Amino acid sequence: MLAVLPLLAVLSLPLRSGAAAASHHNCNAPLVSSLPHSSFQSSSQSSVGYAAHNAKLNRRDGAGGWSPMVTDQEPWLQVDLREQMEVTAVSTQGRYDSWDWVSGFLLLYSDSGRAWKQYRQEDGVGRIVGNVNSEAVVQSKLSHPVRTRFLRFVPLDWNPSGWMGLRVEVYGCSYKSYVADFDGRSSLLYRFNQKSMSTVKDVISLRFKSHQTEGVLLHGEGQRGDYITLELHRGRLDLYLNLDDGRVRLGSRRVAVTVGSLLDDQHWHSVHMERFNRQVNLTVDAQTSSFQTRGDGHSLDVDYELSFGGIPLPGKPGTFLRRNFHGCMENLYYNGINVVDLAKRRKPQIHSVGNVTFSCSQPQLVSCTFLSSSSSFLSLPPPPPASGGFSARFQLRTWNPDGLLLSLQLHPGPQTLELQVSGGRLLLGLHGSGRHRSEATTGHRVSDGLWHSVRLDTRNLHISLTVDGEPSSNIELWEPVESRGNFFFGGCPSMNCHAQIPSFQGCMQLIFINGQPMNLSLVQQGLLGNYNELQLDTCSIKDRCLPNLCEHSARCSQTWTSFSCDCSGTGYSGATCHNSIYESSCEAYKLSGSSSGFYFIDPDGSGPLGPTQVYCNMTEKKVWTVLSHNSSAPVTVQSSSLQKPHVMRLNYSASAEQLRAIVSGSEQCQQEVVYSCRKSRLFNTRDGSPLSWWLDRDGERRSYWGGFLPGVQQCSCSLEENCVDMNYFCNCDADTDAWANDTGVLSYKDHLPVSQVVVGDTNRTGSMAVYSVGPLRCYGDKSIWNAASFYQESSYLYFPTLQAELASDISFYFKTSAPSGVFLENQGLKDFIRVELSSPSAVTFSFDVGNGPAVLAVKSHLPLNDRQWHYVRAERNVKEASLQVDQLPLRFLQAPADGHLRLRLSSQLFVGGTASQQRGFLGCIRSLTVNGVAFDLEERARMTPGVSSGCPGYCSGSSSLCHNRGRCLEKSNGYVCDCSQSAYGGTTCNQEVSVSFDRESSVTYTFQEPFSVMQNRSSQASSVSTDSRAREDVAFSFVTSQRPAMLLTVSTFSQQYIAVILARNGSLQIWYHLQTDRSPDVFSPALNNLADGRLHRIRIHRVGKNLYIQIDQDVHRKYTLSSDAELILIRSLTLGKVTRMENLNEEVLQAASKGFIGCLSSVQFNHVAPLKAALTNRGSSLITIRGPLVQSNCGALAESTSHTLQDQAVTATKDKEQRGGGTQKDLAVIAGVVTAVVFIAVCALAVISRLLYQQRRAQRDSGGASVGSVGGGVKDEHRHGMFTDYRTELHLHNPVRDNVKEYYI
């Protein structure tokens, strides 16, 4: 018989017990004022009048408060609340009528007064703000209540003109506690009244503190395969849950969810699990994880009993399947049932296995924390050994991969024994006189944040090292040794250190020397040994990867003081993997100089959607984004009816959310549907009901088959009034034996793309339908030219509050003639964020997250209020802030260690002004994007006085007046294009710059001075610095039939190089030699022969270790380098033959000696266009030309030919897809005519191109001849304006991705 637990009590069960919940609303009673003097302790007191018991709030007893001795280096004030209480707030006050107060402090809490834990706010900050004078009371409400008996106030800062003075009050309430203590061999069994218990909802809550990293808290299982297990594993909490999934059994179960970390710290942790059907929420402390269970079941069926504290083996009381829980549980509730209370009252439902007691035993372990990696140490004198030699053992936990654990001098000397963590593992070294050194290592990793036991012994002429009971590692000795002097743990004073090893940062406990325990309380009292930068009575380890602040599923790793994010494979970059490495649209790729091909786009930028692959068709004036699906071929349908219709589901290369983002961000989208029919109707001719239909992106049924008017049940022929039979709205509805066609283009954006096609009228004799659905095609990027003009200083646009707690990025373009103005501002109660033009030549990014105002400024040597477009991008995350303006160096500001993380804003976001209507911006702002979301400035401007939509000027539209990174500059009577950042020339930066090389030809661009591509950021945490992420961006085209061949090399003064060559078989090879002590990385993205006399376009982009390569229109291929090192001190870039270069690989040397015979076109390396520089900067010391070099238009001719062939192929393919279902002869005839017309057009174009080429060559030959390295020059390209000349750009340390996006005009 199955029984379902009553759930009325469960529905309102909170995290804490019912008694606690009842009093929680009024849990703010003062707890200190009535305590006796014995409840107060301190590290010291200045005199009797300054004793700890005088530290009650608003009291004037004694000297009016507590003050420690001036010589007390680690002062603290401790309060014993006499019993476990729930604390919700604390108040502080300075010493009465004095200059003594505490302005900042830490709050520690403990159950026993021995092992302490630091209270931290939600964002991990431990420092609590104190007083600014001696009389005002400052109350600090705790972000989460703590249940404790002992509190310790640790002053951090005080009045610099006085001394520490403190009076305190603690607020909270008592609560009912039901505690059970498990000794690791015991458990409680809650037995059901029936054979099994079936529940559709479960609520389990408890608090626990554990002595071990492993142990089962709860387990239940049923015969049909259901089970639930809560288990500690490696200090984390694992939940195993299975509902009616017969494929999963207990022996091979998988972890459904893992929550929490460092849960074996002997402090209380709260657990709350809720399950309703298959939906599960698991919360540990403040971290919640939600998931759905596997299987088809919705109820949990458990047979006989639930066990708490272990999994008993059936039929063998006292034996267990897995390691039992060792520690205490408090207020254990299962579906409203207080399990501990039932056990304590010896109710028959509860069966106790082993020794379960109902009071929590307090551990006697006392930990200490080594705080500094440079100066921490603990010096202890060794007690006499029982026999010769020495021994030491202790437990440690750390995140750091390196640090000195133990150092001591040995006799006979001089000999030093050092035990250290090296590369995450233990290394034992014995240093003798001279260079004599012996070492022993362990394969056990100890820098994982868990406790590890270490033992060091001398016996039988060897020193043994043992970790966690594993087999020992040994150092052999020539003679017996003994320790001499003190044992130095965690580090040592500089005069005692043998080597420059960083001090240990982490925790130690259970320190034994020569078999005797070391009493750390005596150390704290100054009665034993010596120490520096040591925190006693607590282990202050913190998991900085919980929660994981790395974005986009990046992997987090940490040390004691910081964390880092591995962005590999995520498609994102930056300190927290916030920035997408891909453009947001095909339009952006086109404006950066790219050509047609497959690309990854990230439609929401730094948002959560992620990148998706699309085809960007740039052969037309409009840039089309093409997304394909799984059914591009024509589909033939027969024998379908309304009762059994044919259904085709279309799966796209992007997710539904990505599709929605792409469609909504585009100006226009369309999708072609071709329906060929024979006796197959689309609509019932009697009542007009649809016989076939399609589903839109939301799954809604649609029955219109063309155009952009939803709800009109018609085909395109009806809208165009050209149906075969005008009595019907569709050609197919004429229902004839002849083939008919209804082809329409769906263009209503809100319904696209088509997700499903349903055909229901092909079940009659002779009925047949052939349909095809084309890819989704969109053009335009609405955000790029979305602009607003501000012409009143008091005007602004307002938007909802910025969602930027942990990370935010803001980017936009502006142009103005005003000297200053606020671009945007958002404020909170104390926090704020602001971006402004602070002077005619400076942009400032300022914010405050609770650590005080932070300011980043970028200053330009040229005015920014020149009425030209300028790009701004500001980003702030938990690790750093950055600001970029145009191509100026990217500025960084490191976030302070252990500071506030969350930016808490509450007001509206003001754009173009501030809430005070002062310092408003006058000018234009466009393409405002925040966290990947484009703001519609034009719509908001239409309803705001003082602001107009759009921006006047030639360079303010989406017509792309300047191409290939060219910058559009406004003039009084027009515009000009600045092509200095482009590898192209001409008035609009669209003319190929091509040069023909022979075997001896080369062009070398020498950088003006040795410098790093990326300047190193400062090591100071608070300093501003430039970008240190290694980046290169290389693009060029070539035509050759030679192999092997040298295309391009980049060399540095530090013997690094990049080489792009064609191998002996004609395949492309890219060589990266970043670390001179290692072999170079070699990548072959295409094994086919590229020395085929055709034009090939190569794009290479590197961000750190990630290398992206594109050949022609192929998809970007991603590779991983062995190093993310920078190119340090770039020397030169060479095209063609390399005569002198050291450290080259043999295969690269062979290609370098062969040179290059063919055409190189539009070469770009970061900001440098070497071919263009060679043609326009004759005589420059930066350019060296060797051998014959002839300017030509070979790149343009080859590209036009390839485009013609490509367009012909695309046209043929598209024509085939659209008419693949028709087998009629008339379609074949039409296709033949079209092919003939295209062929004639291609021939005519080829003849015209040949004539133009001959005419231009004749003109060039009459004007000058080819030149070499001696006595010659290079023919100037024709200049049409003062801004089309090339200007050498030396700022290679600017980020390439931002360079690509700088100018859209």
TrEMBL record:
Annotated EGF-like domain residues: 541-578, 952-990
Presence of keyword Signal: yes
Transmembrane segments: 1227-1253
Boundaries of every F5/8 type C domain copy: 27-173
Cited SMART domains: EGF, FA58C, LamG
One Pfam family here: Laminin_G_2
Signal peptide location: 1-21
Keywords: Disulfide bond, EGF-like domain, Membrane, Repeat, Signal, Transmembrane, Transmembrane helix
Annotated S-S bridges: 924-951
Domain Fibrinogen C-terminal stretches: 577-629
GO cellular component, one term: membrane
Subcellular location as annotated: Membrane
Gene3D superfamilies: 2.60.120.1000, 2.60.120.200, Galactose-binding domain-like, Laminin
Membrane topology designation: Single-pass type I membrane protein
Domain Laminin G: 179-360, 367-539, 786-951, 1013-1194
PANTHER family: CONTACTIN-ASSOCIATED PROTEIN-LIKE 5 ISOFORM X1 (PTHR15036:SF84), PIKACHURIN-LIKE PROTEIN (PTHR15036)
Family: Belongs to the neurexin family.
The protein's name: Contactin associated protein-like 5a
Organism the protein comes from: Amphiprion ocellaris (Clown anemonefish)
